[in-house]
Amino acid sequence: MGAEAVMALMEASAESEPCVVSLDGNQAVRLPLMACVKKTQAVAKAMAEKKWDLAVQLRGRSFQRNLETFKMLTRLKPPRTAVEGTVPGVPRERVLQKQETLWGSSGGYTLGIMHAGAPCCGMNAAVRSFVRNCIYRGDKVVAVHDGVEGLVKGNVQEMSWSEVTGWVAQGGAFLGTKRTVPTVDTMPLIAEQLKKFGIEGLLVIGGFEAYHTVLMLTENRSRFAAFCIPMVVIPATISNNVPGTDFSLGCDTALNEITEICDRIRQSAQGTKRRTFIIETMGGYCGYLATLAGLAGGADAAYIFEEPQSIDQLVTDVKHLASKIASGGISRGLVLRNECASENYNTDFIHRLYTEEGRDVFTTRVNVLGHMQQGGSPSPFDRNMGTKMAAKTVEWFVDKLMEEKTFTTPHSSVMLGIVSRQYKFTPVQELKLYTDFDHRIPCQQWWLKIRPLLRILAKHESTYVHENAIAVGVEEQAESIS
Predict the structure, then answer these.
(1) What is the pLDDT of residues 448-460, one digit of tens each?
(2) CA within 13 Å, CB half, 233
(3) b (16+ CB within 10 A) / e for 305-317
(4) pTM for the full model?
(5) Please, what sign has the CA dihedral across residues 74, 76, 81, 84?
(6) Which of 234, 262, 345, 378 is the most buried (most CB within 10 A)?
(7) What is the mean pLDDT of residues 153-175?
């Protein structure tokens, strides 16, 4: 936002309307200042006059939906009307009604939920929201434990309202998760279990494995009729390496953990004087964590797979850091490296290089963060995003199951992601075209555009390319994901 504010000032003239620079999703937006002031005053006036409904309305539909979801999720038990077939705020025809399905059953829908991939914060919040939103509408939720392996073995359990109490604040994955994906041998067994438990819609929460799992099931629909059901992936991984979304559940919490650790390490380096720390982050081949943590932690460099480094560039970075420390500009150095940034220039090599080239100026230490990045309590951002995504998934399932009778098209198997400034359902088969399966990363990643800021703030010669911030109205901003 600071860089965007500078760009706004440079582009402004004496006739330019004053604006407010803010973030909407991952995109910088410029809002008219006076329109924001009038909107804020209108909300304050409505609250002073105790016109609560008007105050909520003035905040936009997004705020209204969040408030309704909050009221529903905080109930100790589902309302009696959900069992009787009527739910406040939900049309009668959307409760406990459905058309003939593959299994020929009647009543509420039976929706399945499972994990795939490594655990991360925000998974439990999404499960809690999905379970309660479904039960609130009169549907049944069956949970698969231990990912694909659990589904193959039939480790499935019906979930109740009270079973997910307190899950929103807990990290990890209470349902259990593994990195296993379907194989040729397990496909028939998965189809058998889906039919056995009458699952009419499947939600998979997880990382690249979840995306890969749903993609494989979708591509085998012609062989197994049980796969002809609506399926959704909610991306959840600290690596943030899933195509079809700018943010994944868990990556914000992991970024907070890394930033906090970097702050502590920086204090140690400053106390010792003239010391540089090399920190290795997780993320596989995706450099999101190293880049964003480098920006947040004031790193002098961040090495990632997406931007290959030559030995000359590495030596230049060492000399640049040494000159800053020798001149008294700084008393410590902080260098981040993604775990798969380079096969040859690994963390040990970087450590030895900085130790040798900077031996007359600073000392060097290494810190490999490891799996502590996956732990901790979910951040408010991850909790809220998981809750919202699960609620939107339920709405998508209901719409699909009520409007369609067959599910063989690409649009019945989707990834729910945040793309720029909105939630978006994208067919997984479409995303396949934009995926680097060898390195398990999307072919295009938005955060690469802000990497020049890291070098600029570390006093390197670099150029920040304008992110094409857009000017939006206050009403449009009110409908955003934030």
Answers:
(1) 999 998 888 887 6
(2) 33
(3) bbeebeeeebeeb
(4) 0.84
(5) positive
(6) 234
(7) 94
